[in-house]
Amino acid sequence: MAFSAAEAAMPEGPSIVILKEAARQFEGRTIAAASGNSGGIDFAALPGQPLLAVRSWGKHLLLELPLFSLRIHLLMFGSYRINERKPDAVPRLALRFAEGGELNFYTCSVRQIAEALDTVYDWRVDVMADAWEPRLALRQLRAKPQMLACDALLDQNIFSGVGNIIKNEVLFRLRIHPLSKVKDIPATKLRELVKQARQYSFEFKQWKQASVLKQHWLAHTRRICPRCRIPLQKAHLGLTRRRSFWCERCQKRYDSAARPASVANERKQ
């Protein structure tokens, strides 16, 4: 059965999980032919290797082979085709299997990983992994008190798989201004931020599979706040300089520097 995916701007973790689940039909099959224009890949070593497992970590799709693994990152506008090919386009990586079927990846980064994947990746920080550890995420957040909320959610060492859509939607859902610093966000809100990063990712996956994802966006690319009915703000914020969409009325900017000293001191006690 053919399965294709159109280009998407910076695919996020849930989209890669969908790809992983679709590509798992090839587990156990043997690569019969490999080609592509990706540099640094030993294409000659691929034929004859069985695909041991298809895994993912955040925005990385991982094809585990006996000699090494292949890491595919779809970057900003990557795409793939399963059991079909993209017309008039040369893939970065194309795999044909002896038992039938093919995997084709376009406009993406492909790298070889020589080490065992369990030594390279910390599965505990992948928001969609069974090994996800929310307490670890909370500790890592608290270790970076000056980090802005808009940057924190995009830190792949804390929330692997979270992208710009999830960032904007989670902050809007929790009524947190993107320029709030981690140290100023109340403990209950910070714990909810960790919880929602994972919960919204699974909702994202469900909506995307049902082809209704955009219908559920409340802030991302929207113009009017659905709560306040006023124009949303839009800017490239933080160190990441990714687009943020937020409401100045209902998303609170936590900022201890802007409060009277007595209030700030009281919070520390």
Could you characterize the architecture of this molecule?
The protein is of the alpha+beta class and 269 residues long. The chain folds into 2 domains: 3-120, Alpha-Beta Barrel (N-terminal domain of MutM-like DNA repair proteins), CATH 3.20.190.10; 123-268, Orthogonal Bundle (Helicase, Ruva Protein, domain 3). Helices cover 26% and strands 19% of the residues. It has 7 helices and 11 strands. The protein has helices spanning 13-23, 117-120, 134-142, 149-152, 164-173, 187-209, 261-268; strands at 3-5, 31-35, 53-57, 60-64, 69-73, 79-82, 93-97, 102-106, 109-113, 233-237, 242-246. A hairpin with a 4-residue loop joins β7 (93-97) and β8 (102-106). The longest helix is centred in the last third of the chain and has 23 residues, at 187-209. The model is unreliable at 261-269 (pLDDT under 50).
Tell me the layout of helices and strands.
Layout: E1 3-5, H1 13-23, E2 31-35, E3 53-57, E4 60-64, E5 69-73, E6 79-82, E7 93-97, E8 102-106, E9 109-113, H2 117-120, H3 134-142, H4 149-152, H5 164-173, H6 187-209, E10 233-237, E11 242-246, H7 261-268
Antiparallel strand pairs: 1-6, 2-7, 3-4, 4-5, 5-9, 6-8, 7-8, 10-11
Helix pairs in contact: 1-6, 5-6
